[in-house]
Amino acid sequence: MTQTQAPPATVVTPPAKTARTEDVPKLLNRWQVLAVLACLVFAALTAGLQALAWHANRAAADNTEQLVRVQNIQSTLFRADALATTAFLTGGLEPPEQRAAYDDAIETVTRQITEAAEAQPADREALADLSAAVTDYNATIAQARANNRQGFPVGAEYLRTASTGLRDTSVEGSAIPIAKALVAANAERAEDELGAQHPFLILLPGLAALGLLFWVNRKLAQRFRRRINLGVAAAALTVAALTVVAVVVAAVQAGNNNDLEAGSYRASYRESTARTAANDAKANESLRLISRGSGQVYEDRWDAASEVVLTNASNETVPLWQDYVTVHEQIVALDEGGRYDAAVRLSTTTDAEGSTARLDAFDTRSQEIITASGAETTDALRSGNTGILVLAIVTLLLGIAAAGMAVWGIGLRRREYA
Amino acid sequence: MIRIRALVAVAAVAVVAGCGYSATPVPQAVTPEPAAPATTAPCTDTGNPTRSYAPAAGGLPSPGNLPSGSTMAAIRDRGHLIAGVSGDSYLLASRNPFSGVVEGFDIDMVNQVAAAIFGTAKGHVQLRVISAADRIPLLQSGDVDIVARNMTINCARWDQIAFSAEYFHSGQKILVQKGSGITQVAGLSGKRACAPAGTTSLDQIQELAPDAIPVTATNHTGCLLKFQNGETDAITGDDTVLAGLAAQDPYAEVVTGEALTDEPYGIGVNRDQVDLVRFINGVLERMRADGSWQASYARWFKPSLKVDATQPTPVYGR
Q1: Which A-chain residues 210-229 have CB contacts (< 8 A) with chain B?
Q2: Does one domain contain both B92 and B163?
Q3: Same domain, yes or no: B180 and B143
Q4: pTM beyond 0.90
Q5: Number of domains into which chain B is organized
């Protein structure tokens, strides 16, 4: 250490007035406590905020995964309904592959409900209700199927009851309203956590600590005629450096999260919304044909669902949806033109020109986009997130070291005074 | 010491902020707005509402001999008769899921009219499945030629459309579980009875069995669903409809005996097409004579209603 240390003579001759009224060692103790507290509180608060930021990113990733999961439950429920209603239209004996696809969809829904309940405790109550609603739906579809196989029109009533019950907001415990509530809750959680990076907030403990250290240094300077106390200055520099790093990291992270929210997160959310509406529309297309003559209510629902698809689908899937819409319009024209059987054939055939194949093409591509965008969001949130935790630990340790520097610096003056 | 306290505080903040999401709210039921009550059109005729127009003198003209300029000739020239029918009233008119063909008692009536115009119904009938609410508007607009959809003839409807003579005499009855011991409406006391919402059928039941508990569904098939799920003990409605429900459930039967109301069914026609009404009445007369009405009844309703019936005697005089 080659710093300028004043000769003891100057120190031991403080201004006479001050010497008479002040107890210098006590003052030095007080300033030391203040400087140490400033450093430690800074370290604790800044590291705490960084730990919260680290946790928020983890939670945002988890919530995004849960959101994708519950949106998939919602889409798959509509898909099951579309499969059930389309299979029903084909007559008493439904094609085995359509039956298998329906069973797969219900199995997916059941499995994902269990996974979602494990992933988010706050969703458990709603998921338990959803599970009960899906069981009811599946049981009613089984009754519809049993009656349809015997050629009884009451089968269609069971199907309508199941389909309507799935969406019914006037009955407590309907599946789709619960799924919608789950989607809304998880989207809110994910977006809250994505927005939980606060560069300005993280600046405050640093500024407060620097202010205090500056004040302590000034007081020391007044008493000991030395402009700068080396220990306090080193502590202040450390605090300043840590604050700058913390603010820059938080700002970069906030920017990245904003980009994610507007980018892959939004893409996944919107595509999922489109996929849900698309399957809803296909179910309504079948219900329109099943409810021959009084199917306008289902056509109105088809229109509303199609609007949602067009508003939310990505550039990649909109053309696929339009391919489906073209066939749907042909089906409506055939039905209204008295060619009911031709309309049913076009709606139920699995050939490429039918509406089922067109919907499937949309659904498959849409699902790929949702999976890719969802993974992109969670990967981005998780990669590099550990760095924030390491930074928090470093901030804590260096903050403690800064407190030590202040103690050392003030200790020098104490020794001089003694 | 200070350091430890600060760390504990930070950890506490992290736990509170990170883990405790409030439970996802389960949506409450939203009560829909009640539908506006149906308004009844004023009635201006005080005579017997089943009065129709007598068939033209000289009997039913042959297909090749239809009066030129008549409604029937126009239909023949078009190539097909357009009939508004039900699609889900089992035995009256419903789509057979195996053949894809809409069939039933009402469809037999339509086919008879088409056969009288074209010589054969095959290839000359376009069935348009319509809702009950569409029956009158579609006749008034001319979108359908006739409506055969279990439509009760009444005075108020005569102000809007015309009817053929009565082709089936239906009436309100009850459907119960086999072996229930209920043999008349009074036996429904303390039991649940289902009818479509907005109909007057339940009022009739409650007059005779005031302690009966009303249950409603959107339509009669909805009542059958409730019946099968144990949510109602009985269903009430026209015997033709109940026969269709009973035929779909081996544990259900229609209680035989006097009907609670009279529901005379007629074929609806545009009120300006009196020639077509007269023509249809001629077809109905022919069905009585050649036994085809009886054959249709025996095929569709007799197995479920378990009683014989005769074609109603027509009343003319309009």
Answers
A1: none
A2: yes
A3: no
A4: no
A5: 2
